[in-house]
Amino acid sequence: DVLFMMIVSSPRAAEQFVRQGGLSLLEAIQYNSEGQLRRRATYLLEQHLLTYRLMENMADP
Description:
By secondary structure, the chain is mainly α. The protein has helices at 2-9, 11-19, 22-32, 35-59. It is globular, with a radius of gyration of 11 Å.
């Protein structure tokens, strides 16, 4: 719940989460969990974190 609220409410927290490798953790939750956890992980990935992943990929040479 805390992670969800932080990422949704703070673009800076979302950016740091991506930089720290948090996407792989959310992807694992998305595929290995059930119900509410899976839905929340999917929502965070699709609505809040994919933008940061794209920006990070563009910054890599």
